[in-house]
Design a protein that fits this description.
This protein is an all-alpha fold. It has five helices and no strands. The protein is elongated. InterPro entries: DUF6640 (IPR046580).
């Protein structure tokens, strides 16, 4: 027989682990490895070295934040719910940062020479950010809902 507390504790952690893995490897793959998207970022000859520096900084930062979140999620002992919340907050930082970056003057989600398809009228990066932030919100709300049901 399955313990309901174990199920609700596992589902949020699995959602957060999924987001952590995407956070760790997403920017590296998209901005540096996958040719179609790397050509728009680190392999874009039109980008000055300082712009590439900041993209590389984002890649490393995302990897580190995902790693910190995974360490929090893998830890055992007391404070599991607070570790989950902390991990979700850490994971939300780069995705909220992406959404906040478009509010700055003279920024754009893509360079004008590239034509990326949209999905539901959103640039794929923005859609991914919204999906991952939604998963983190669900991960945080699931344990609270289970506690209220008891």
């Amino acid at each position: 027989m399955t313990d309901q507390r174990t199920e609700t504790a596992t589902a949020p952690r699995l959602l957060a682990v999924l987001v952590a893995i995407v956070t760790m490897f997403g920017a590296l793959l998209a901005d540096f490895v996958i040719p179609a998207t790397a050509d728009q970022h680190m392999r874009n000859d039109a980008w000055p070295p300082h712009a590439k520096f900041h993209d590389a900084q984002y890649i490393v930062m995302s990897f580190l934040l995902g790693g910190v979140a995974l360490a929090l999620l893998a830890a055992r002992g007391g404070g599991g719910r607070s570790r989950l919340w902390t991990a979700c907050a850490v994971l939300a930082a780069p995705w909220l940062g992406m959404l906040g970056a478009i509010l700055f003057p003279r920024t754009a989600i893509q360079d004008p020479e590239f034509d990326n398809p949209t999905i539901a009228r959103l640039h794929p990066q923005l859609l991914l950010a919204l999906i991952l932030l939604t998963l983190l919100l669900v991960a945080v709300l699931l344990p609270a809902r289970a506690i209220r049901r008891r």
